[in-house]
Fold Translation initiation factor IF-2.
Amino acid sequence: ELAQRMAERAVDVIKFFMKQGQMLKPGDVIDADTAELVAEEFGHTVKRVAESDVEEGLFNVEDKAEDLKPRPPVVTIMGHVDHGKTSLLDAIRHANVVSGEAGGITQHIGAYQVEQGGQTITFIDTPGHAAFTAMRARGAEATDIAILVVAADDSVMPQTIESINHAKAAGVPIIVAINKIDKPEADANKVRTELLQHEVFVESMGGEVLDVEVSAVKGTNLDRLLEAVLLQSEVLELKANPDRSAEGVVIEAKLDRGRGSVATVLVQAGTLHTGDIIVAGNEWGRVRALVNDRGEQLKEAPPSMPVEILGLQGTPLAGDRIAVVESEARAREISEYRQRLAREKSVARQAGQRGSLEQMMSQLQDTGLKEFPLIVKGDVQGSIEAIAGALDKLGTDEVRARIVHSGAGAITESDVSLAETSEAAIIGFNVRANKQARDAAEAAGIEIRYYNIIYDLVDDIKAAMSGLLSPER
Ligand code: GDP
């Protein structure tokens, strides 16, 4: 790549290294200082470009308070499998889509909008926390409110707890939808009581979390659920400046045979227009068409609106951020820069750079953080409680272990993505990681530690934590 950028032959560059006594093959990585030396040796002038130069001004444009206008809330539905997430998403969509409207055929684009009492709400159409966490792992905060679906005939289950922890880790407020209330065996109060144990305090239990009893199948109380969303949204005072260049996040993207790369983007600030030049993650393009969740072509998309974008050169990833730039040249420059960065990162990852307990410790030390985040999976609830108790005792005024998530069962992909977003280590006690989780951990460079003796586990964490106790400064 260095040869290519200097417009030299790779073999000449390799020869040069050979003369210096270094045997390299194409694809080997050299550091920036060496690259600079070589480039100068070949008669080129080197200009070091920092990320800030290329990416400057792309995101986080400061908006003046008076330019901010209210925007619709963006909602994700989470909860245990079979508790009715998909049914609820479908029911809400069908009950609140303006029927008989031209082009009123609903399209699945990954998110949709409904009206309630003249106000708009955006729903992310992929239920569950997997997509939510995958997005967060890429640095995207797309969700304002999480609806936690709990089936009243089943109550709190492992994925209910995971969802609670994911929402909490993201700082996203929860609204509880107690579903399947039509069933004779439904027991809403049991749900409320069990939620207490996971620090979700609903209003009738003296807390502040809104809860609504619903039936997705019968369509009961869907309007009350949407009212609760709007109420919560009012508290959050969600605002964005619609009168500037757009920023957003990719919700899903695919390569469509007829239409090329198609990405569904949630506009988060500004207004996106056809003809805009955008960068989306490592890709770029000129917006050829904007299509909403009803298949209608739009000229523009304001904040909180999900739209399909046509015209991208490549297919971005879910969770990639998008921004409008002033010219094609700049879009190309940024996307090339990012693609190079991504390649370098993947090389660095293969070299296994982060994720080990020790490295995590030294990272924590650098940031001065004195909490040690952990995800603990065990064979039975009893052993997890014993581990939590033992770790709790290890804590001092200076440093303590914080269990971000724990549960009985194998280590899954969802644990790995939560580890990635919360920068936690993963510990398996008498359990292993499944194949997908192992692959995900490897790709993300996250180490999973296995134990079958609590003493060993506690000892390791203790050693790691004492490394965190900084010498007196
Ligand atoms: P998900 O896995 O959370 O997306 O759950 P689904 O939406 O697929 O629902 C799982 C099952 O529960 C399906 O058979 C639904 O028909 C059923 N179900 C969902 N909501 C309700 C409800 O409100 N009442 C009843 N009786 N069944 C429901």
Q: What stands out?
A: The first strand starts at residue 69 and ends at 70. The pocket of guanosine-5'-diphosphate is lined by residues 79, 81-87, 127, 179-180, 182-183, 215-217 (CB under 6 Å).
